[in-house]
User: Which sequence fits this backbone?
């Protein structure tokens, strides 16, 4: 995201000004990234796809609010994280049926073909983490962001992100210890 | 050192699903369509619904949008009253485009731009779209239906958009916005529930001024204003009302039930005050946990009656067959020399412990991942262990969990088999969540299977705020709890932990289930709630307890009920046995405080009317008349008891302490009725009226008041 940063910003500015091709390029190059972050945040394939589509649909309007204070990519990630949060909250208020990482076990039985040991471990591990920790993991590990960048996306201090990552490490270690038993 | 993280990173890479080509293409196409539509509407070629009467005529394009955006951002500056905020929150919700619920506008930002307020008033009065606009609206996606919620009355109340649709259009509208051609049903549910949620939120009192972030609102509203039709699918992540009105982000996603403070009533106009008894104490525990964590509790978390009712008072026990005795006292109001404070205390009868009926307890325990914190599931387990010795051999306990290890963890077991119960508690594990766990239905089924002659059945729901108990629709949940209540099984809610606590739902469920809502943050609180009050909280002596006071206009010119805002009843509901009210358990107490102003007092808030009929100054000299109605458990007709309030009842340390606590609550609320009376006076009053305080509750309260004083001095 760093390398592409400047170009993204230029495209985004052009799109704000009404440049159709720039907007098309912008969505085209970010779709996969939005999708993969959405998947890491929700833990569910279908949820990730829906979320990505929602974001794409809303992006033209949302883009107006981008003021260039943050890199476009950072801003976009924030949009994705917020959208995932909203979805999660709504799910929590009503049927929490859709907590992806938690219901992995059920999903896995449906999609046996996709399951392998590494995934199982990942799912178990993610299910152990609180939503906040999962978000942090999704950004820091999944997107190879620095903790500073993740902090910017999440609207937190870098220290908080560092603390969360050490917390994640602790939980993973505890999980490993359990598995060793 | 980072092995674990590296492994996770690798696993994440390996597991990431590739986007489906079709979905990708569809999403990209949708993005482009919306882009085009928005460009068109920004440039004014497509007449769309506008939120701004200040048409950007000379500044077409983005610049004009910016202007509108700024004006919209100023909108929250108007919002000071709670009710106005409620409308505002509804706006946020109904324009299905708002994203960041909890972060809306920081109060600091509001105060920095008060000049925006008058502008906002204007900009939010929209142009009525010409018929032209409606017909020319782009026919793609869900456009025609999306207009329905815009013109539905609830939105109209906030945004003043043209009202063309009937109220009943709301549901239709919900499915309309939420079902764009690209969506597959999930969105429909989301939209519908969001709107259901919204209507519930309107009934539920609103917390005051959430911290908000202007740009975020602007972002959401602006996008809403421009391309409402185009980006309908986004409703899938529109904030639910609960999000929009969340207070104190540092507390996470908590929602509190509260209403504006009771106003001063003029006795001549409105002599009768009616409310439902309340023995909940959750608010006090929430306040304590906030203060101990070094933060003033959000004002909407404060329910003064629950603070006052937290403390045990030495009220005289009822005699004979009466389930209640009233303890009335009258004293000068500590914070206002021109008024008096009337304390009405009710003491519930404590039947001989030996005589209590057997209990059938079903614990419905939330074992979702969020319960793993030390102050949640582990505390719950400890709490239940504390309770076990107080149960009797003939009592039965069952445990049902939802989320995670779903199902019946402990079949109905006599309390004498403590080993089995403790073993079941040990097996409880937080983690994961299970789809469709019919937790609450199972709990009620188990309760039914335990039914025995004369036994009292109760479901105790222990949760940190995740009410995914199997019924996703809050209304259906309430209905179910209500019907189970009628068949004799009551529901109590035990709240654990902070950050996710849905206080409003807790209250609603417990009130519908005739149970109590308690918040457990420490083991000693667990002892109080489950241990000391076991018989009381679990064994009702009177249902639908209603309290009505008729004030005498000759001696009381004005009165104000302190607290009980969420418990108010209509005057005519007092005699209506169909109207539900609070339930009082064995030995429990209910305390209510009125501040009354005698005629001629300098403290009167309202001038006397010149043309009002003269009130009869002769007569009894009584201050008022207290009426109580209640039903014996399981009986459908109520009984009535009446006691005059003579004004000669002397106040004791209990009354003064209750007054200090009411003052404490009002200080936290920022009440306008306290005048110069502040923390120091409240602390002095509480400290001087601690009385015996066998359990140290009052000493703790004084400590909390000191914390509150130093926190609010900052």
Assistant:
């Amino acid at each position: 995201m760093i390398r592409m940063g400047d170009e993204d910003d230029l495209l985004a500015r052009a799109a704000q000004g009404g440049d159709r091709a720039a907007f098309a390029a912008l969505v085209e190059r970010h779709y996969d990234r939005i999708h993969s972050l959405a998947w890491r945040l929700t833990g569910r394939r279908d949820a990730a796809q829906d979320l990505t589509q929602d974001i794409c649909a809303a992006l033209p309007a949302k883009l107006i609010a981008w003021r260039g204070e943050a890199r476009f990519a950072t801003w976009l990630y924030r949009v994705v994280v917020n959208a995932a949060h909203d979805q999660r909250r709504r799910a929590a208020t009503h049927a929490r049926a859709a907590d992806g990482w938690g219901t992995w076990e059920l999903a896995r039985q449906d999609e046996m073909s996709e399951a392998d040991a590494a995934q199982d471990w990942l799912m178990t591990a993610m299910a152990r983490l609180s939503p906040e920790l999962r978000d942090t993991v999704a950004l820091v590990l999944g997107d190879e962001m620095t903790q500073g960048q993740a902090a910017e996306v999440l609207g937190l201090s870098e220290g908080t992100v560092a603390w969360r990552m050490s917390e994640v490490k602790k939980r993973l270690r505890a999980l490993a210890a359990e598995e060793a038993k | 050192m980072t092995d674990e993280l590296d492994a996770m990173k690798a696993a994440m890479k390996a597991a990431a699903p590739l986007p489906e080509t079709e979905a990708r293409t569809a999403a990209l196409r949708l993005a482009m369509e919306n882009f085009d539509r928005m460009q068109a509407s920004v440039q004014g070629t497509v007449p769309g619904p506008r939120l701004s009467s200040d048409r950007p005529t000379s500044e077409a394009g983005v610049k004009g949008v910016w202007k509108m955006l700024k004006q919209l951002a100023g909108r929250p500056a108007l919002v000071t009253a709670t009710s106005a905020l409620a409308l505002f929150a509804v706006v946020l919700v109904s324009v299905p485009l708002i994203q960041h619920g909890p972060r809306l506008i920081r109060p600091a930002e509001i105060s920095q731009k008060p000049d925006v307020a008058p502008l906002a008033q204007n900009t939010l009065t929209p142009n009525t779209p010409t018929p032209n606009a409606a017909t020319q609206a782009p026919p793609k996606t869900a456009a025609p239906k999306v207009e329905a919620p815009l013109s539905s009355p609830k939105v109209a109340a906030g945004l003043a958009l043209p009202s063309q649709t009937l109220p009943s259009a709301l549901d239709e509208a919900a499915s309309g916005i939420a079902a764009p051609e690209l969506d597959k049903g999930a969105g429909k549910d989301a939209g519908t529930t969001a709107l259901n949620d919204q209507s519930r939120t309107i009934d539920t009192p609103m917390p005051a001024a959430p911290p908000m972030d202007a740009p975020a609102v602007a972002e959401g509203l602006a996008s809403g204003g421009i391309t409402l039709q185009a980006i309908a699918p986004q409703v899938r992540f529109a904030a639910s009302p609960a999000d929009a009105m969340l207070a104190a982000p540092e507390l996470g996603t908590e929602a509190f039930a509260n209403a504006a403070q009771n106003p001063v009533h003029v006795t001549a106009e409105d002599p009768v005050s009616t409310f439902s008894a309340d023995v909940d104490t959750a608010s006090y525990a929430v306040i304590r946990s906030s203060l101990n964590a070094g933060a003033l509790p959000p004002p909407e978390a404060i329910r003064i009656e629950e603070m006052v009712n937290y403390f045990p008072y030495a009220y005289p026990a009822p005699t004979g067959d009466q389930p209640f005795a009233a303890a009335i006292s009258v004293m000068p109001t500590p914070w206002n020399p021109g008024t008096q404070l009337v304390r009405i205390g009710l003491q519930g009868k404590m039947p001989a412990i030996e005589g209590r009926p057997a209990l059938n307890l079903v614990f419905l325990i939330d074992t979702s991942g969020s319960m793993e914190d030390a102050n949640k599931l582990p505390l719950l387990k400890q709490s239940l262990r504390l309770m076990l010795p107080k149960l009797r051999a003939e009592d039965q306990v069952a445990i049902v969990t939802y989320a995670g290890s779903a199902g019946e963890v402990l079949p109905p077991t006599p309390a004498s088999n403590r080993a089995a119960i403790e073993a079941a508690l040990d097996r409880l594990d937080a983690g994961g969540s299970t789809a469709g766990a019919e937790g609450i239905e199972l709990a009620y089924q188990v309760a039914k299977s335990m039914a025995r002659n004369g036994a009292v059945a109760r479901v105790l729901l222990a949760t940190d705020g995740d009410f995914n108990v199997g019924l996703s629709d809050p209304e259906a949940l309430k209905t179910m709890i209500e019907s189970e209540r009628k068949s004799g099984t009551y529901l109590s809610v035990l709240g654990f932990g902070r950050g996710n606590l849905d206080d409003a739902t807790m209250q609603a469920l417990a009130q519908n289930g005739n149970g109590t809502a308690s918040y457990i943050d420490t083991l000693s609180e667990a002892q109080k709630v489950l241990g000391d009050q076991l018989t009381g909280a679990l064994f009702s002596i009177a249902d639908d307890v209603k309290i009505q006071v008729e004030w005498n206009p000759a001696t009381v010119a004005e009165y104000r009920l302190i607290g009980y805002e969420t418990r108010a009843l209509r005057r005519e509901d007092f005699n209506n046995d169909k109207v539900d009210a609070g339930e009082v358990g064995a030995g429990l107490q209910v305390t209510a405080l009125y501040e009354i102003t005698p005629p001629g007092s300098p403290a009167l808030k309202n001038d006397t009317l010149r043309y009002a009929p003269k009130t009869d100054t002769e007569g009894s000299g009584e201050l008022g008349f207290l009426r109580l109605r209640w039903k014996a458990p399981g009986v459908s007709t109520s009984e009535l008891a009446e006691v005059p309030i003579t004004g000669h009842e002397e106040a004791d340390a209990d009354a003064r302490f209750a007054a200090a606590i009411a003052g404490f609550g009002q200080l936290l609320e920022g009440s306008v009725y306290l005048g110069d009376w502040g923390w120091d006076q409240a602390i002095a009053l509480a400290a001087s009226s601690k009385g015996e305080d066998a359990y140290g509750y009052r000493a703790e309260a004084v400590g909390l008041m000191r914390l509150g004083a130093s926190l609010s001095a900052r």
